[in-house]
Amino acid sequence: MKNNDRQIQIIKAADKRFARHGFHKTNMDEIARDIRIGKPTLYYYFESKDALYIEVIKWEFENYLESVNQIFANEELTIPKRLEEYFLRKDNVRNDFKLIFEIIVQFISERTTEPETELLKEYLTKEEELIKKILNAYYKDKIKAVSKALPYSFVMISWMIVVGKKMSSQLSVDKEFLSNEKIQQLIEALLD
User: Fold this and answer.
1) Confidence of residue 153 (pLDDT cuts 50, 70, 90)
2) Contact between residue 32 and residue 75 where contact means Cβ atoms under 8 Å apart
3) Which CATH number fits the domain that encloses residue 90?
4) Tens digits of per-residue pLDDT, 70-104?
5) First to last CA, the chain
6) Is there a single domain that holds both residue 21 and residue 62?
7) Same-domain status, 26 and 83
8) Quick one: DSSP state of residue 145?
9) In whole angstroms, how large is the CA radius of gyration of the chain?
10) If you placed Cys at 111, which of 25, 84, 106, 135 could pair as Cys (CB 3.0 to 4.6 Å)?
11) Domain count of the chain?
12) Do residues 137 and 79 both lie within one domain?
């Protein structure tokens, strides 16, 4: 097995552990046992549990951004429809990218570590750049230019919707937080 393959194997196993049990309840012995390697092998690739955790978060963010990029690259859809798919993709972040969701929630409650906060800033900026590209394509043939605040607003609003849906599902089962139709209307309003 190549070094990079082993690293990815470790990251995937650690991702499952961290997502299921959290950082504090996960230990390196369990991760090593999950993939049937010795603990020294883990430390060969990652100097500490903290270092491994940071790499797992980076891996999740990279995979998440790749999924967003695939949505925006789908030229069979109109740009407003791609933006709608982007918002709908966020519905699955809680399940598909649990650590990202947890970091967002921890950030809101001011409980992230400095490395987590720095990663969050870095990857939200990358997400904003993806949004900026799709918005530039949308406004390319229009008189109106892309507002500098618009890409950032799309990113922040979409994350607020993710957190809001989670809160709503826990607080009130008889109320719908935001329907797909309302998301379409929101996108249209943001694009105007």
Assistant:
1) very high
2) no
3) 1.10.357
4) 999 999 999 999 999 999 999 899 899 999 999 99
5) 52
6) no
7) no
8) P
9) 19
10) 106
11) 2
12) yes
